[in-house]
Amino acid sequence: MSTARAERLPSSDPAAVRCRIGARGISRSFGPVRANVDVTLTVRPGTVHAVVGENGAGKSTLMRMLYGLDQPDAGSVIVDDEEILLSSPRAAIERRIGLVQQELAIIPELSLLENLVLGQEPGAFGRIDWKAAQKRAEELSRSVGVAIDWSASAARTSIAIQQQVEILRLVYRGADVLILDEPTAVLAPVQADELLGLLSSLRDAGRTVIFISHKLDEVLSIADHITVLRSGRTITELEPGEIDRAGLAAFIVGDSEMPNRPTTRGNPGTVVLHADAISAVDDRGVTRLDGVAFEARAGEILGIAAVAGNGQEELAEVLIGIRASSSGELSLDGQGIGRMSVRARRRAGLAYVSADRKQEGLALGLSLADNSIASPALKELARAGWLRPSAVAARVDAVLGRAAVRFGSASDPASSLSGGNQQRVVLGRETIGKPRVLIASQPTRGVDVKGIGYIHELLRRARDEGAAVVLFSEELDELRELSDRILVLHRGRVAGVLDGESSRAEIGELMLGHTSHASHDRPVEGEDA
Amino acid sequence: MIDLLLASAITLSVPLVLAALGGAIHRRSGTVNIGLEAHMILGALIGAVVSGATGNWAAGALAGLVAGALSGLLMNLVITRLKGNEIIVGLGYNIVMFGVIGYVLRAVFGVSGTLQVDGLQRMPKLVIPGVADVPILGALISGKDPLFWLCVVLVPVLAWLLRSTTWGVRLRATGASEPASASLGLRTLAIRDGAGIVAGALAALGGVALSLGTVGLFNENMTAGRGYVALAAFYFGRSKPLPTALACLLFGFFDALQIRLQTVGGFNADIISTLPYIAVVVVLAFTGIRQHYRGARALS
Fold first, then answer.
1. What is the ipTM of this complex?
2. A284 and B297 in contact by Cβ < 8 A?
3. CB < 8 Å to A90, chain B
4. What is the pTM of this model?
């Protein structure tokens, strides 16, 4: 990607606009919260501009204003060097600005082609010219070097493809400024690389890209310019050559606020969880786990690494009991738990942090207090079926205090917290009862740098309190930092178990199944059946 | 015997097909139209009254259609613009409609229950020469009223509209994900209102098929829950025109069968008359089980 940047021709725009889109002294408050304070941003035409900052640093607020979804209290949006008022997305679209939000505007019921042209269908008198649409779609995907089966139903395509379609839709609609709000947060590493490639092609074709990301490596690899926001203010603007990862992280969290991250290892004891020859199929009946066997010991963190689609989701679900295994044995302290319900497993000492925080981890509409006590351990807080208020209050304090959750009132809904704080509530609740085994699936997904530090601390604490922690993560560095051992899955089988100190290259080789790169992004066979 | 049963099944299906197709279109736009029953009874009354006043069945049908369109719009506005819950609004709308019609029958026409309209012209039966005497086929397509032929045309036309026009694609998009569609600049509320108008108009034509069909009079109970049966039909047909119409034919068949069994005698009439409704419950249970298995596999 860096070579692409070096060889790229200067912006083709002869008018030599200096700032294609940006902000001049923008401030925006929501009640007492000052989301943006005197923010300045200059995005040059034909560049990729990254905006980085913690959750709550004001990035999304700024992007919403650049797209006309919201308007500044003071200052103004700049388009083509002019201060203008973007009163609505319609006005932004007229200035050829497009936004890809985290919630994709892809309609699952329609085909990808229908999604692409929706709202601006080619044809006359209401009849859609599908041939013209197909031709245009193929031109678009060819021009940026991605392969898309346009006739496929959107519901059956991966989120990575949906995202590509959404980006191409903006291009189809004539946008030449593309704003992407954390596009890679939901993608597996291989998919993220593909997306970054797509963004590079768009830039090389002269378009302007703004993207938000928490993943500093990808920011450094693709961006031409980086703007750092902290607490709603512009901290600095950088170029990737001027700074390394650690330096950038320091700008993001501020000097003094970097959480302390000891790299202590665990003290593995006896085997707690024993899995033998576990096999399982996914919802479509495709085999995802094929004879997986491992042990997890008290006081250790066992990392699970895999390229997305190689069985790690299914393994987490099989362990907690959400998904039935088709064969194999699972035992906890020598007792078979493979046929037990989720409830019985939790009683027996399993705890679970779901990868889907918003659906499975929390009831977002309920209060923090309710979320803190929601577990089979609820009985401890009740007498004859009646909850004892004092016991409930004590438990809520303990959970929220343990996880150092920053909150207003315990009666606020869980949805009022930032993503990182929400995840802390989940971890606090799951670890307060000193579980024998903690299954943590993607616990830091979509969480900012500082929040990640807290979550790692909670995982270590659970380990030190004697839990066997099984950590599923797509972040190799996270696995290497935390794990005592790393188990690598490839095509539903155990490709190997490595020491936690292993290098990225060693782990990566196992993740790709010891073979050439040709097959590394192909999921388990039968995927396209 | 079988000819008579089939002919009767098709005639009885026509009101159901019209209402269910309207409901299906509305469903595709994202709203479950519980008020089909109300639109039907309104269409039946207006159709009968105007046919009587003009002596022309087509004028009656047209008036019924317009009344239904307005009725559909009115109900839909409460759902789209006032953000009313579609189930509650629909149920309430049915209750209000039947109350108002009962009152109007008494206050304006001075009758209760049944209204015999003087000079009412029924719809013609279109006998197709040559085909009429062919076994089965004659019973299937000859001697049917114009609304039957409208149904025959509507099924493929609606399927085509949904698939191949901007209106259809935008309607489906709105129904599947309204916020996403709105963010793409679609006028989703207008699209939904349009679908509500179509639903009201088609359901009202279903009512016209009842009052200007075989009997040629209006009765305040003449819809007999057909608006709800239509709900079951488009649910079973997953809101696709052809499967929805086929579901209506199935229900129409049981209705015809029920009537035949009544005339044969030997069975308890009250129990026999529940036959079509039992068929609805069986079909819904079947649909539910089928969706359960589909859903289990589709989850990702």
1. 0.85
2. yes
3. 185
4. 0.73
